[in-house]
## 1
Amino acid sequence: MSHTTIKTYPHAPITEATLELRVQSPVSSQEQQKVVRRLQKQYPHVENLNELRVNFDSQRTGGAVSVSTQPQGFRRTSTDQTEVALISPLGVTSARLAPYPGWNVFSNQALDVWKVWKRSTKINPVVRIGVRYINRIDIPRDGRQQIRVEDYLTIYPQAPELGVLPMTGYFIQIEVPTHDPLWTSVITSTVVPSPLLDHISLLLDIDVSRTEEIPMKDDDLWAVIAQAHDIKNNIFQRCITQQSERLFE
Amino acid sequence: MQLQTLSSRGFFRPAVMQPASKDSVEIAKAFGKSIPALYSPGFPHRQRTLEPPRGASLDERLYDARAICKVRTAAVAMHLDPEWRSRFFSQIDSLMDAENWEQEDAPVTEASFTTLLRMILLVRPKRRPGLGSTSTGNIIAAWTVGKDRLTIECLPNDKVRWVLSLDSDDHREGAAGHTSLSRLTAVLAPYNPERWFVCEGG
């Protein structure tokens, strides 16, 4: 995969940017709570995350159903809900909802959360880095009865004509190693209900991750994370068309 | 590949047939792997609902309602002016402030707020509306210029109820109706709605 020129857009279609750092061994509930407390200033709101488990015992007469909840960590949010930190036994995730403030701001947000995590937990190497950007391309219908996906994305479905009516939806997901073999990318595209009236919205979800040769030192770690961002940008640029770009300007 | 633009219904229907052969088992496994990757992104900030826990306090219910309004707004933030959005958030905080809230009133519902957002992105008013709400949780947007007033109650599913009053040379005129968002601009057109939506002097 060759590199392309990276552009910035005044109306970037990013609905969500996420950076996940997963560690080798689960941390204790006390350590998680320490992280949660220390993030209170930047992220004043907190919620417990629970997994709901429903068990059905077919051996008992009539079948016995029991429901239980299992703690899965904590979710802290900023006052305007756009900055999110998820603290779980196996790591920490920073997320940013739209409007996307740019990589420098977002990566600094994630770095601050990571520093709090490191200060509050025992030494625990990172075993996975994941950088994920979800983009939504809102296309005005402008009176058209149909739109062509390939006018907006270079990743699109191909199928024989199976009837007289056009396709009403699609789902594509590809998993492909990047030009740097240490990184893998998963690219997903589909149609989503548009939040705008009289629009069609296409989703372009780019997930770049790595599980090998992850540095221990923060400076080196963040340099590696920046690589993921560059790879994501390159993929994004290659997946969109000029018609899409015009929608972001 | 052409995509029909008239359909907004869910496009993907998971296979309901039980796998019978080895191939179909592999296909089912592949779908099982890929579909959750899209629809359960693993980031629980997408999983908020407006259903507060039973016995939730007024503060908790209002917090949840404000939070969901802001998350919904974030989803379209790229289409909003940052300054406009910031002031809009202040209005939401002020509207659902526990100190000024009647205990028996329902907080603004997600369905009503979604209609408000879609209306704003349709009309794109330069002037922000004043916000209010009904006791049942419908949000109300109101624009007043001089003695001319437009009030729109946002109902679920892109429906609105509107009332306006105009001050002409020698009499007052009023009108009201119930319509869908897709018809709103056409319905209001005879009353020159730009008087409310466009700021004088920019």
## 2
Amino acid sequence: MLEMASSADPDRTAVVSDGLRLTVAELSDLADGGAGIIAASGAYHVAYVGTGGAMLPLLLFASARAAVPLTPLNYRLSADGLRTLIGRLPEPLVIVDDEYRDMIGDAGKQVLSSADFLHAARGAEPSAEFADPEAVAVVLFTSGTTSAPKAVELNHNNLTSYITGTVEFGSADPSDAALICVPPYHIAGVSAALSNLYAGRKMVYLTNFDPHAWVKLVGDEGVTSATVVPTMLDRIVAVLEDSPADGPTLPTLRTLAYGGSKVAAPLVRKALSLLPEVGFVNAYGLTETSSTIAVLTPDDHRAALASGDPAVARRLGSVGQPVPSIEVQIRAEDGTVLGAGEVGELFVRGEQVSGRYAEIGSVLDEDGWFATKDVAYLDEEGYLYIGGRSDDTIIRGGENIAPAEIEEVLVEHPHVHDCAVVGADDPEWGQIIVAVVVPTSGAAPDVEDLRSHVRRHLRGSRTPDKVIFRDELPTNATGKVLRRDLVTELNSIKEHA
Amino acid sequence: MIKNGTRLQSQVCDTQVIVVRSADSLDDLRAGGVPMVPVGAEAAAGVTIDPEFSGGTVMGKRYIDDTGAEVLVTRAGNGSLSVGSTPLAVKEAKPLPASD
């Protein structure tokens, strides 16, 4: 891929990151040298601990050219957590940003600082092997919000299928620029580096997200597209709302993609009204599926917002239609394939779907289908709706309740800024429904008012048994609510009561 | 059947492709009217481009046949792609919005 980009337009700017600017040819030369360093180390794996930026595309291509898998690790983990994960990789060469050097200790086979790697790559003897398409290219640890992190293996074929299936080579305008602020250890960070290079779009990195810096970078670098996770969108919207009429705008921005986890409908509507010129894109995917498998396009957003037809208006809360190279099925617990409107578990199939874990193996069924563990349904037009993780389903008095259903209603209440609905242990019901609510700034919501708001919209069994208030929800860096933390906290409070 | 991800080159022009979706038809994949060979292989002696298949390939375009085979051109050349004597067609993809 890098070869293709390099032969098409070697002198265009490929990467802008903290004052470092690289053309496609410079990135390609560095990747060749980097591959030489990796090959010479004799390591079977490369691990990267750092904030990313130019290091991510460089290490992705250097590792690919050395035919050695790469694992970007979550630099926010504790030293113990990092060393445990490094210990699960086969004799890795660990490349680490200086600020995290002390956390690594002597984990791995060999440790090299990012600065030293970059410096050495400029002069190293190049190496360019062509990896077997079925060899593992990238191993990513899942965030482990519901269980211990699993090591997802993506092979070269999964990743290139995703790119060639969703991106047209060289399709970007010469002036296009993508602002990338998703972390390097997230699948969206990996896919952003590949797809933007392939499309011919300049990649502008913001390594430590800050909403003011984000808005400024859009202006400084003429950014035309960007991807954010829900918590980032929330903070960007807050900055735009607070700025005076003559304050910062985003004049060059044409598309803004959001994903990573569910974005509340009121936030989407607010963002759409603040940025009427911007095309919004909701992207849904999993690590195991090499990123995006369904897309709600800018036209879908506009149609939903303008429509008087409730079925079309609802689509603002859907994740859109599957990308052309992906097949989807909704299945009941007994495996029956369900029709439109019926809720079940989402299964997906396609070349980009890995469904394979180190230490576990492939979990695809015999026909190549992957069980996402997401509760979902399709509407008559094939728009996909995601109702959260099946692990998060609350079982109250024998009835299965998807938290997302209640959250979608609660968050529409004017006094609710954000919320998470979880099940807490209960001696009578097995589990009870607890709504954890972050009030809108300045509001003092009334518990009974919130409960009757839910009762007006949903069946009585969906009414939260308890409502508690918090200043914020516990989330990880990509905006996923840490439900397990909330549940643990709620259950321990009760034990002490 | 050729494996997905296999890289092939033309014997008579600069065209190189990568197999995106394999099918039995690709066993007779040709560029410039002459069978394609694995990247790095020597061209056979005395083969020349067939003028019937000299329309050229476009870098980054995907080409398909009607049995579901798909290849991606990773280097453009003067020959055009065919299975036997049936030309491959350029796959016209509906553009998706940038989502990464």
